[in-house]
Amino acid sequence: QICLSLVKLLFYLAHSPLGSIVLLDFQPRQFVMVDGNLKVTDMDDASTEELSCKEDNDCTLDFPTKSFPLKCSVVGKCEGINEKKNLFNAYRYFFTYLLPHSAPPALRPLLSDILNATGDLRYGINETLRAFEKVLHLYKSGLYLQKRPLLLKDYISLKGFRTVEGEDYKCWPSYSHLGCLLSIHSAEEAAAICNSHLQCQSFIVTQHRTWTGRPLASFQSSWTDLIPDTNAVVYIKRSASSGERL
User: Fold this and answer.
1) Active-site residues: which are they?
2) Which of 163, 183, 226, 237 could form a disulfide with 214 if both were Cys (CB 3.0 to 4.6 A apart)?
3) Which keywords are on file for this protein (predicted)?
């Protein structure tokens, strides 16, 4: 969410009515999340000036660990230097820390492609935004899910119930530090996740949703202490419930 919001912001800056705008003091502290969108807190160090040049050799974009040769345009400006400077700063301050984590395994290669392409400046801001929107579409639609055996048949579902909240086993990346709370596309995906956790015996699908509209599921190491909840469904492994009365 943070990276996508940042890319949308940089897309606007690259195509603003004032021309391509560069953030000269590009640091994480210069941004804040407001209603799920990244905002710049200080525009004092923003500029529309692009580096003047006479030849391509005048257009090297230098960073502490990398340098990029750019083209000198016919009007004597280094082509796209503001856009590329913003994009590489997004890569080194945000993408490298946030993109490699938390995504479903099937989407990680696509995020690695974005990371590598922006790190080498092979992508401009237009290509970067398209790549992020493709990943978001796959994530929201569930198209990233690989065909696998149907596992939900191995669970008993009880509508209108959930387990008593409390500390349970933890997983990564959980939305709760008290247990294992993950976003899912469907109960079938939740069953696959539960099967992949040795501790998991049940999971609860709630009506709480993430910014992408995906429901949250709480994964549990037991299924006892059920209480009524009209907005939840608890799924219990048949193997865990065998010999017990529901």
Assistant:
1) 25
2) 183
3) Kinase, Signal, Transferase
